[in-house]
């Protein structure tokens, strides 16, 4: 009985030692990616926990299987169609948004109050098929934008839906930029059948408008690009943070993290040497463990 206990203890000790040597190699090989599908990813966005700015990570995520960047809010999850890093604007699409080509059912759109975004100046919303007195002359609506309603209702899919389900043709156009960061469009409460949104609709052809939602983001209160991140990117690193403490980390191509930049040859060399030693030691110990298991007792 004692022999069995000694064997079991030795077996567990070997497993623990091999795991402790091999696990750092596996963990250190996980790095922040520079792209998600075809979309270039730069600060403040990231491809997973520990990448980019921690304020944005709960909202903008990369689906690693589908390689699609998405924005998540309380009203749903929306594909990111483009990011303009010069203007600091992120563009998203809503599959339930009405356009001149399609008018699917919709529950509306909301932007969480804690989300680090605000509506871009050019974003315009149009509530469609509204009853209950909501129309272009309502107080919250932009009366000068009434032509947008007329142009949208000239689209055959929108007109057909209004006629088929016999809903009101009330329409309200407004720019949400003055409503603050928290925004909620509850179509059921507003008694509207759907909505449309666009960030470019200057001409009179609704088929040519850019449908979607444009959101402005800021790096910090003063909107200054962080010096640490700029230095990290110049050293071919990707800006990130430590998951437990949210402190800045520069994710480097060698598979190591730095609190400043990737221009640390000594650290890089020592990290690679430690990786090699860990792999060799782990391989030796794994062989010893397998030999011990096969040795007749």
Automatic annotation (TrEMBL):
Residue span, EGF-like domain: 250-262
A GO MF label: protein serine/threonine kinase activity
EC id: 2.7.11.1
InterPro entries hit by this protein: EGF (IPR000742), WAK_assoc_C (IPR032872), WAK_GUB (IPR025287)
Membrane topology summary: Single-pass membrane protein
Keywords associated with the record: Glycoprotein, Signal
Class in the EC hierarchy, top level: transferase
Catalytic reaction equation(s): L-threonyl-[protein] + ATP = O-phospho-L-threonyl-[protein] + ADP + H(+); L-seryl-[protein] + ATP = O-phospho-L-seryl-[protein] + ADP + H(+)
A Pfam cross-reference name: WAK_assoc
Signal peptide positions on this chain: 1-29
GO cellular component assignments: membrane
Keyword Acetylation appears in the UniProt entry: no
Organism domain of life: Eukaryota
Cellular localisation: Membrane
PANTHER family assigned to the protein according to its UniProt record, in alphabetical order: EGF-LIKE DOMAIN-CONTAINING PROTEIN, WALL-ASSOCIATED RECEPTOR KINASE CARBOXY-TERMINAL PROTEIN-RELATED
Name the UniProt record assigns to this protein: non-specific serine/threonine protein kinase
């Amino acid at each position: 009985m004692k022999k069995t206990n000694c064997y079991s203890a030795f077996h567990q000790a070997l497993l623990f030692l091999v795991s402790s040597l091999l696990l750092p190699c596996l963990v250190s090989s996980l790095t922040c990616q520079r792209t998600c599908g075809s979309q270039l990813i730069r600060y403040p966005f990231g491809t997973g926990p520990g990448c980019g700015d921690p304020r944005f990570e709960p909202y903008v995520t990369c689906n690693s299987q589908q390689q699609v960047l998405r924005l998540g809010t309380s009203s749903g999850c929306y594909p990111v169609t483009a990011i303009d890093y010069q203007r600091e604007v992120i563009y998203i699409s809503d599959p339930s948004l009405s356009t001149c080509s399609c008018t699917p059912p919709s529950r509306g759109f909301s932007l969480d109050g804690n989300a680090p975004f605000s509506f871009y100046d050019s974003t315009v919303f149009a509530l469609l098929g509204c009853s209950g007195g909501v129309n272009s002359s309502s107080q919250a609506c932009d009366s000068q934008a009434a032509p947008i309603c007329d142009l949208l209702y000239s689209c055959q899919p929108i007109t057909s839906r209004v006629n088929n389900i016999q809903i009101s043709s009330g329409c309200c156009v407004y720019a949400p930029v003055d409503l603050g960061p928290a925004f909620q469009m509850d179509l059921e409460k507003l008694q509207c059948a759907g909505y449309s949104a666009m960030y470019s609709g200057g001409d009179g052809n609704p088929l040519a408008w850019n449908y979607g939602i444009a959101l402005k983001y800021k790096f910090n209160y003063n909107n200054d690009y962080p010096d640490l991140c700029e230095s990290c990117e110049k050293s071919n690193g990707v800006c990130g943070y430590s998951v437990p403490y949210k402190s800045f980390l520069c994710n480097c191509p060698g598979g190591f993290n730095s609190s400043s930049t990737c221009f640390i040859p000594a650290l890089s060399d020592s990290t690679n040497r430690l990786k090699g030693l860990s792999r060799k030691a782990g391989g030796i110990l794994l062989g010893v463990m397998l030999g011990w298991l096969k040795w007749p007792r």
